[in-house]
Amino acid sequence: MSKAGRKAFFLDRDGVINVDRGYVSKVDDFIFMDGVFPVLRALSAKGYALIIVTNQSGIGRGYYTAEDFQVLTDWMLRKLEAEGIEIAGIYSCPHSPEVNCHCRKPAPGMLLQAIREHGIDPAVSWMVGDKPSDMAAAEAAGIRNRVLLGRELSGHCTHMISTLRELAGLLE
Length: 172
Hints:
Layout (H helix, E strand, L loop, with lengths): L7 E4 L24 H10 L3 E7 L1 H4 L5 H17 L6 E5 L15 H10 L7 E4 L2 H9 L4 E5 L9 E3 L5 H4 L2
């Protein structure tokens, strides 16, 4: 497949990859979501690049440092790799909401950067998030398939699921 036509699954981190416990910045606080490993392996087996896009306003708010985030990210990547899961890229926004930057979701900056850098075709790609801001960012980036995990309604999503395991049914 040519790089220009790559398909991807964009994944929010907190609430999709791991349980959102509020400003997760330490390994001891990081709990992988139930079912995340088999789901990510299945998506990868179907030829999707896996890309994480995550707001990390705890950095901008001074709750933890960029170095803390990197240590946790490196640990997470090692755990995913041990499960046979390759992450093509991780994009993070360290800004607090008051900064009004172009990268913090619901702005599409992180997604657009990943699309450009990885040669992703947004028309055949997906975004999975747990907040309306994830869906709004994906819609603004032209990502056609937008999956909201959880019960919070969003006019920007194209699908709603209660658990990650339901993703498989959307791809059949």
